[in-house]
């Protein structure tokens, strides 16, 4: 059976192990970590853009209000 190296302590661990038997560190692939970070970043970006559109939409079209008179 192939062995892997623990990303935390460097000890040899059995292939497919989710935890290092020596230090207890969870073993996740670099791809999964990058994918998770990208997902969080995209979600935060969507929330910020949505908030900007909501705030911009709430501004009145006429900043002076309804008090402006137009005389022909």
Topology as H/E string?
Answer: EEH
> Mean pLDDT, rounded to whole units?
81
Estimated structural class: mainly alpha
The residue ranges in which pLDDT falls below 50 over 5 or more consecutive positions are: none
Please give the largest β-sheet.
2 strands, antiparallel
Radius of gyration: 27 Å
Care to count the β-strands? 2
Helix run count: 1
Distance between the termini: 90 Å
Anisotropy-based shape:
rod-shaped
| Share in β-strands | 5-15%
Give the domain tally: 1
In order across it, which strands form the biggest sheet?
1-2
Helical percentage: 25-40%
How does this structure look, described?
- The chain has one domain (3-59).
- It contains 1 helix and 2 strands; from the N terminus they run ββα.
- The protein has one helix at 30-57; strands at 3-5, 12-14.
- A two-stranded antiparallel sheet has the order 1-2.
- A hairpin with a 6-residue loop joins strand 1 (3-5) and strand 2 (12-14).
What structural keywords apply?
Zinc-ribbon domain-containing protein; 72 residues; transmembrane; transmembrane helix; membrane; 1 helix; 2 strands; two-stranded antiparallel ribbon
Write the layout of secondary structure elements.
Layout: E1 3-5, E2 12-14, H1 30-57
Pfam family, one: Zn_Ribbon_1
Keywords: Membrane, Transmembrane, Transmembrane helix
Protein name: Zinc-ribbon domain-containing protein
